[in-house]
Write a structure and sequence with these properties.
By secondary structure, the protein is an alpha+beta fold. The protein contains two helices and five strands, in the order ββββαβα. It starts with a strand and ends in a 10-residue tail after the last helix. Helices cover 26% and strands 39% of the residues. Strands 1-2-3-4-5 form a five-stranded mixed β-sheet.
């Protein structure tokens, strides 16, 4: 199964596709030096399969590569970061 995470800048969201099918997304708002992650959604057919975690990791890796910080507004993203200490440095002060 191929997994692809892309930044759909036109809709202000990161998307995850499994074998070409949209499986979930994280909506965001750009701020000065940061990305506010405001809402995460995973399709019901993909729940419980690690899609949300893969999406969170992919989004945060991209934010890190861009040299930005994150504002985790979305409860799912906030909990995910809390459980993964190696990403806590990305959270805006």
């Amino acid at each position: 199964m191929s997994t692809e995470i892309t930044d759909n800048a036109g809709q202000n969201r990161y998307e995850i596709r499994l074998d070409g099918e949209l499986a979930g997304f994280v909506e965001y708002e750009l701020q000065e030096g940061a990305v506010a992650l405001v809402h995460t959604e995973v399709g019901s057919a993909f729940e419980g399969k690690g899609v949300g975690g893969a999406l969170a990791r992919g989004v945060l890796d991209d934010v890190r590569a861009r040299g930005l910080s994150v504002v985790p507004v979305c409860p799912f993203i906030k909990r995910w970061i809390d459980k993964h200490p190696d990403y806590q440095d990305l959270v805006a002060a």
